[in-house]
Specification:
By secondary structure, the chain is of the alpha+beta class. The chain is built from 23 helices and 50 strands. Helix 4 packs parallel to helix 5, helix 4 packs parallel to helix 9 and helix 10 crosses helix 12. 49% of the residues are buried.
């Protein structure tokens, strides 16, 4: 019910919404949970395994019970917490994990079979008969499993992703977070203040105390206004920081306000990657429950949540409330309820020494030992030193203590530290580089200590970055001592629940220990404790305490499970924002793309790049006609091909040469400036990763090229080597693939064409084969490399990408005037097969330098990555499949890549397999089909005949084994 004149909701703006088909009224500022409680809706969900009734338990993202599905049709979104869903006009929500209705759930029958469905029952039950698993057990379990469900329709939800940088990131905007942001900002640092709630204030929004003589809510508004007015502060509400990662990087999910989402083309949210030089974690603390028999009924809530609903939303969760706790939070709850006019039936304090000044029936040293009611709480049972008593109540507020939100501080592998005085785990010191912890997250539970620690840590973060600490004093506020009596469970008749979503009880944890699942990680997986959507935020510590008691260890020795991102659920659509349609598979286009399209070239995918397959001319009706013409053109005159997609990596630094010696099999430190060398790169397991050229542009400056397919892989490999294997070497690596447009000019007239566009002509003496250097073309600084992938006299010229389109058009026009023109990937492939050049069709990840005939490139004078592994006997034995050329000589002249090779007289079965074809084409230079493939003992079988069979495409061909290079084997053309 609503409490008059209480709360921060806007009563001037009522909104209507639907839950489970019924219409209700709420106010702007309500959450779905507060609005349902105000309307007397107490049961909102069913639990996962036993389908027991569940009600709202908390007031934040830690909520384990009130999971709902919001929206209809394709837009429906399951498993949202009613405690974080903002009520808006026209909202449609429904309960989940029930059938057919919430009030009448057929699967509630599971609760009758609870004795047979304890921890680990699924490991023991569905074993016999064996044939029942696929036909009966698995389909039945799959139908029953899960909570909410997607609609199955394509959703139009749109998320964005964004990046932000700051000096100080403050995570949480409670009293500690506000002071940390204020201190860092006053020092001059750029600050981002991230708060997952819809407004700043944290726990202060749920309290009635004063700060600096002001009501705490008024003080929050005053500080928030000051921060909003500062140009170096960015306030991000509705933004949950979800994870801490290397290099001061943090993930954050921003939810947009409902009125923004309703706008046309507006996103639902944004996933941020925030890079901060320092961070202050001020995420507060989460109140935990106490396990006692039947502690899961709707109406059983956290004491702090009850205060939040009363003070922030003006809602009384019940008409008669019993408060039970082991710390002073219970007393504060009673005081706030009474001040709001809500009847408090009793205050039960587990501390026998506790005192109470409030006008309420007080039971020191007593405990709740049971409850009654089915779909809602009706009464509680009290165990006292002198006996038991029963009190009627429809709301039970529990406080079992507070758990600091240490999650983000442990996302990089550290474990929290147990503090016996606070009966809580505290964040480890320095676990996340650059992060400091303040406020309740650090164990400071009074408002005064929260304010002081926030001020201290915010100023310290700024000072560490070179700013001057501001002269600020912490506001005056309450500084009550945190006193707690350790109480985790109350014995009694009935099930005592720990994980309310996954239906894990004290008995389940004890059973896990009895069956020797004594490790906390084993217990978690055996019982599913902490594996529900709330990830055990308010149940894990109590479960650890129960496990510690069952195993005879202390809580510190028992330890915690591993903390992993994300802190709150993140929609896959947010993580993959932009990854839809072309965002999922973007088209990378070269600078010559428009010109290639204008010339009628069909574009094909090469990795993520789109490249021209061939350039058809008038009268050509088949791709082979265009391809054959282009190959003949390159061999006879001159051709232009865009090779910008090859990976280009700039390597610089005093140790650049020995770095390349380490990553390549052959030597590069001896390469002279102005020269290019072909290189081979191995993985650590000795297999070939990639090949390419490397040009020495200066003493400490190299430009490496990679294949198009492996550009990203090689870049990652080089980064790993520089950061992990050789961090002591002074070398810098950057990909410049997109920065340079590069074109091959190939054919007997290549030099003549280039001399027509270069400002200074070149000749064979001054620019021999495998030379490189800077040139000028039309006043633009360019790079020229005399290298060839066609086997012809050829060059590659590179210009800054903005000049690429103009240069390609000019080169093609000049080539056409000389009887040449542009050529595409089909011709490029034929040219390289004629010369026996390899691509990733050959170096596909399972071959060695020995297999491709390049074992001589493995230097014996130095170490390099993969050297030891590549020298293993199994990778160099004569019986391995090695690369050879192939030529059909039988009646069938067809040769298909992917076909398998057999001895001519052998049966074409797996046991007689001798190898496979990697590449094949028709060679206009030779007038017949040729190919490349791997054949066992290939180099010593030159001249033999083999049978090539493709069972799938029903092709069979007799081939002669040839040497790899079938056109110009002496190499005179490319050197001439």
């Amino acid at each position: 019910m609503r409490i008059e004149d209480k709360g921060l909701v806007d009563r001037r703006h009522p909104v209507s919404f639907h839950f489970d088909g019924r219409r209700y009224e709420g106010f702007a500022g309500d959450t779905l949970a507060s609005a349902l409680l105000a309307n007397g809706v107490r049961m909102v969900a069913r639990s996962f395994k036993y389908h027991r009734p569940r009600g709202v338990m908390t007031a934040g993202s830690e909520e384990p019970n009130a999971l709902v599905t919001v929206g209809r049709g394709a837009a429906q979104e399951p498993n949202l917490r009613a405690t974080t869903v903002e009520v808006q006009e026209g909202l449609w929500a429904r309960s989940q994990n029930r059938w057919p209705t919430l009030g009448l759930d057929v699967l509630a029958v599971n609760d009758l079979f609870a004795p047979f469905l304890g921890a680990g029952f699924y490991y023991k039950t569905f074993m016999w008969p064996k044939r029942f698993w696929e036909g009966i057990y698995e389909p039945m379990i799959r139908r029953a499993a899960g909570l909410g469900a997607l609609s199955g329709e394509a959703a139009e939800d749109r998320y964005e992703r964004a990046f932000a940088h700051c000096d100080v990131l403050v995570i949480g905007a409670g009293p500690a977070g506000l002071m940390a942001a204020r201190a860092a900002a006053e020092a001059g640092a750029d600050v981002i203040l991230a708060e997952e709630d819809t407004r700043l204030g944290g726990r202060l929004l749920a309290e009635t105390e004063e700060v600096d003589g002001l009501a705490c809510v008024d003080w929050v508004e005053e500080v928030a206004a000051e921060l909003a007015a500062m140009p170096n502060v960015r306030i991000m509400t509705r933004t949950a920081v979800t994870g801490a990662y290397d290099g001061g990087t943090y993930g954050a999910l921003e939810r947009l306000a409902p009125y923004v989402v309703e706008r046309s083309h507006a996103p639902k949210g944004c996933f941020w990657r925030i890079v901060a030089r320092r961070a202050v974690l001020a995420a507060g603390a989460l109140e935990r429950a106490i396990a006692f028999p039947n502690n899961d009924r709707p109406g059983v809530m956290m004491a702090g949540a009850v205060r939040a609903y009363v003070n922030r939303w003006g809602v009384a969760p019940g008409q008669s409330t019993v408060v039970f706790g082991n710390n002073d939070s219970a007393h504060r709850t009673v005081a706030d309820l009474q001040a709001a006019g809500v009847h408090v039936a009793a205050l039960i304090d587990a501390r026998s020494y506790a005192r109470c000044d409030l006008d309420v029936p007080f039971y020191p040293g007593a405990q709740i030992c049971g409850t009654s009611g089915r779909r809602a709480l009706e009464a509680v049972q009290i165990a006292m030193p002198k006996g038991e008593d029963r009190i009627a109540a429809d709301c039970l507020a529990i406080s079992g203590g507070w758990n600091p939100s240490v999650h983000l501080a442990c996302h990089m592998g550290a474990r929290p530290v147990w503090d016996a005085a606070r009966q809580a785990f505290l964040p480890p010191e320095g676990a996340v580089p650059g992060m400091r912890v303040a406020g309740a997250a650090s164990g400071a539970f009074s408002t005064r200590t929260c304010l002081e620690s926030g001020l201290t840590e915010g100023a310290r973060a700024a000072v560490e970055l070179g700013f001057h600490a501001p002269d600020l004093a912490a506001p005056m506020a309450g500084d009550a001592t945190y006193d707690i009596f350790p109480l985790w469970q109350v014995p009694g008749k009935g099930r005592a629940w720990l994980d309310f979503q996954n239906d894990v009880t004290v008995k389940d944890v004890v059973q896990a220990a009895a069956e020797n699942f004594r490790s906390v990680e084993h217990m978690k997986r055996y019982t599913t404790q902490g594996m529900a959507p709330d990830q055990g935020k308010n149940s894990n510590v109590a479960a650890l305490a129960v496990l510690a008691d069952a195993t005879g260890q202390g809580i510190a020795e028992t330890g915690t499970t591993t903390f992993r991102p994300p802190y709150v659920p993140v929609p896959i659509a947010a993580l993959g924002a932009g990854g839809k349609g072309k965002g999922f598979a973007p088209e990378r286009r070269t600078t010559s793309h428009a010109e290639s399209i204008a010339r009628g070239a069909p574009m094909i995918e090469a990795g993520l790049w789109y490249r021209p397959s061939y350039f058809p001319q008038k009268g050509e009706s088949h791709w082979r006609q265009s391809c054959d013409r282009e190959v003949t053109m390159v061999r006879g005159s001159v051709g232009i091909c865009d090779v910008s997609t090859l990976g280009k990596i700039d390597v610089q630094g005093p140790d650049a040469a020995r770095f390349l010696d380490f990553v390549y099999t052959n030597m590069f430190s001896t390469l002279k400036v102005g020269r290019v060398r072909y290189g081979l790169m191995l993985r650590e397991d000795g297999h070939v990763m990639d090949d390419g050229t490397c040009a020495r542009m200066g003493e400490t400056h190299f430009v490496m090229t990679t294949t198009t397919a492996a550009a990203g892989q090689v870049m990652r490999h080089l980064e790993f080597v520089s950061q992990v294997l050789r961090p002591d070497w002074d070398v810098r690596i950057i990909s410049v693939t997109e920065q340079w447009a590069q074109f091959a000019v190939a054919g007997p007239q290549a030099r003549e064409l280039l001399n027509g566009v270069l400002e200074a002509e070149i000749d064979d003496a001054g620019f021999p084969y495998m030379a490189c250097g800077a040139v000028q073309i039309g006043g633009v600084a360019a790079r020229l490399f005399r290298i060839s992938f066609s086997g012809e006299h050829a060059y590659e010229i590179a210009v800054p990408a903005r000049y690429g389109a103009a240069l390609f058009a000019a080169l093609v026009k000049r080539a056409e005037g000389m009887g040449g023109g542009a050529y595409g990937l089909e011709a490029l492939n034929v040219l390289r097969i004629e010369k026996g050049f390899i691509t990733h069709a050959e170096i596909h990840g399972r071959v060695t330098a020995f297999d491709i005939g390049m074992q001589a490139m493995m230097s014996t004078k130095k170490d390099f990555i993969g050297k030891a592994a590549a020298s293993r006997v199994g990778l160099t034995e004569a019986g391995r499949e090695q690369l050879v050329g192939l030529k059909p000589v039988g009646a069938v002249k067809e040769l298909l890549a992917g076909a398998h090779i057999f001895d001519e007289a052998a049966e074409a079965v797996r046991d007689t397999d001798q190898g496979y074809v990697t590449s094949a084409c028709y060679s206009p230079s030779l007038g017949h089909v040729i190919g490349m493939g791997f054949l066992k003992r290939g180099p010593v079988r030159i001249g033999e005949r083999v049978r090539v069979v493709d069972h799938l495409r029903k092709s069979e061909t007799i081939c002669e084994v040839m040497k790899l290079v079938q056109v110009d084997p002496e190499g005179g053309r490319l050197r001439g």
